[in-house]
Amino acid sequence: MIDSRSTGSVPTNPVAHWDVTLPDEGATGRLAMDLAAMLRPGDLVTLDGDLGAGKTTLARALIRELAGDPELEVPSPTFTLMQGYDLPRLRVVHADLYRLGDASELDELGWSEQTDGAVTLVEWPERAGGAILQPDRLEVHIALPVGGPETLRRLRLFGFGRLAGALFRMKSIRALIDQTGFGPAHRRHLQGDASTRSYERLVGARRNAVLMNAPRRPDGPPVRGGRPYSQIAHLAEDVKPFVAMARGLRERGFSAPAIYGGDLEAGLLIIEDLGEEGVLGGTPPAPLPERYEAAVDVLAALHAMELPDTLPVAQGIDHHIPAYDLQALLIEAELLLDWYLPHSGVSLAADARQSFRQLWTVALAPALAQKPVWVLRDYHSPNLMWLPDRDGLARVGLLDFQDAVMGPAAYDVASLGQDARIDVPEALELALLGRYAKARREADPAFDVRGFAASYAVMGAQRATKILGIFARLNHRDRKPAYLRHLPRIWNYLQRCLAFTELEALASWYKDHVPAPGARPRFEAGAAGLATRTPAPPPPASPLPEPAAPSAAAAPSAEVTADAPAPSTPETPNDSSST
Question: What are the Polar residues biased-composition ranges (predicted)?
Fold first, then answer.
């Protein structure tokens, strides 16, 4: 069941509390799971209670959860006072201050250096007075009820600062997990991408599920026309679009996750686990043709349907799927100007920026004039699962479609045929495009193959343009330089798309202003006193074939990037996963 009622906002009061009863060791383990999911580097957790209350037991369970290793040896730091653990996701320091003489001894232990940036668990914190306390902390007070069973513990948790809101959210998550029947399940963190959402696998005795934790995202400052970036680019700001699209896709026979329950206002969903088998195979990972063919068949079938622009979410709540309009496409393309060009050492004159927008406006017009379909927007290998026990189109599991829009059919086809993180062989890309066009022509003899080819080229170029900006931003703003290794691949995709005849004017602009990844630009005085690049010739690029006639076999070849973190302008703090 999805709860569409308001559960209340996260409290702004800097203190929150939660009373918890732990009847046995299993309950202690579940609390440790909840705490491990909540904690972040730099957080402090203090544990106090009488001797034998279970402070070390809880700390040990928590460290094992953070490590993802139930067998990890966690000795008590009673004699060493401090014990450090360098875990895959973060560093943990476990301290027992019972033998501490006074707070001055913390310096001798190297307290500040050891705990900087770590999750710090402290037993007997009162021995240090207030010397270790910090604004963002969780205090855990453990009591042994008089006359109760030996295993019974009563806890009162107090969250301060950031951990006040985190504790409030943790209570909501635990309530939802219990309500959907996954209370005993083990929570296992799933690695995500550059997104504000987080995911966990709930491993149960009979079936698994996935917890989607997507708190409502702030709009960010106005960037154009009084509107924030997320509104202009039509990025989902809560989980309602995900629920609507999941149900809409499932009703049409596609394998989007079933939704077992949720709290719409809190941004929490428990959804079907589609497993871990994707559409890639081998080392290094490469596309598996059979699975890619099934994935393009899904798009052809979806795009042949009459698709509404409004879908139900819950009783009395509808979701209107926004149009992938000109302003959204332009502000995404401008990520190239805002992030990739500065990354490449290029300062752009105002008139060149205006020319960029004008050229893109002209180039996008034919694609925007086509009949719109559901553009899932993140249709690439990380979000496509393989479900061999299902039949036909249902073998392809679909994820990450909350930013879906009504727009050109070619966008998702380009997302599939060209991936920012892996190489799709050009022969496979051509085969996929031919397969898609053939299926569309069989469903509708009037399907315009040449118009689709032109749309594929322009949407591919727009997507590659956007991703160059996104990956440069991830390096500069988010300190994720690993994305830079993909830039040459995306650049090649862009060159192939720009070779399409209809994009000749746009290709000329790129040649004059945009350096290839790794190129050393030469500078000269530019308009309005700004520096502009004297460009070097771009590297050889494989042109995007143009169909000579509306034939399914003559589909175009281009390379557009896969999904990446959500675009935003430099002034926009918003981070989204959609591209």
Answer: 569-579
CA distance 194 to 564: 7
CB of 30 within 8 A of CB of 163? no
C-alpha span between 9 and 172 (Å, rounded): 11
CB of 168 closer than 8 Å to CB of 154: no
Phi–psi pair at 529, nearest 5 degrees? 75, 5
Q: What is the full per-residue pLDDT of the chain (579 aa) written as tens digits?
A: 665 544 444 444 578 999 999 999 899 999 999 999 999 999 999 999 998 899 999 999 999 999 999 999 999 999 999 999 999 889 999 999 999 999 999 999 999 999 999 999 999 999 998 999 999 999 999 999 988 888 899 999 999 999 999 999 999 999 999 999 999 999 998 875 545 788 999 999 999 999 999 998 777 888 888 899 999 999 999 999 999 999 999 999 999 999 999 999 999 999 999 999 999 999 999 999 999 999 999 999 999 999 999 999 999 999 999 999 999 999 999 999 999 999 999 999 999 999 999 999 999 999 999 999 999 999 999 999 999 999 999 999 999 999 999 999 999 999 999 998 999 999 999 999 999 999 999 999 999 999 999 999 999 999 999 999 999 999 999 899 999 999 999 999 999 999 999 999 999 999 999 999 987 654 433 333 333 443 444 433 444 444 333 333 333 333 333 333 333 333 333 333 344
Query: Which residues, other chains included, contact 97 with Cβ-Cβ below 8 Å and sequence gap of 6+?
Result: 81, 122, 123, 124, 125, 127, 128
pTM, 2 dp: 0.85
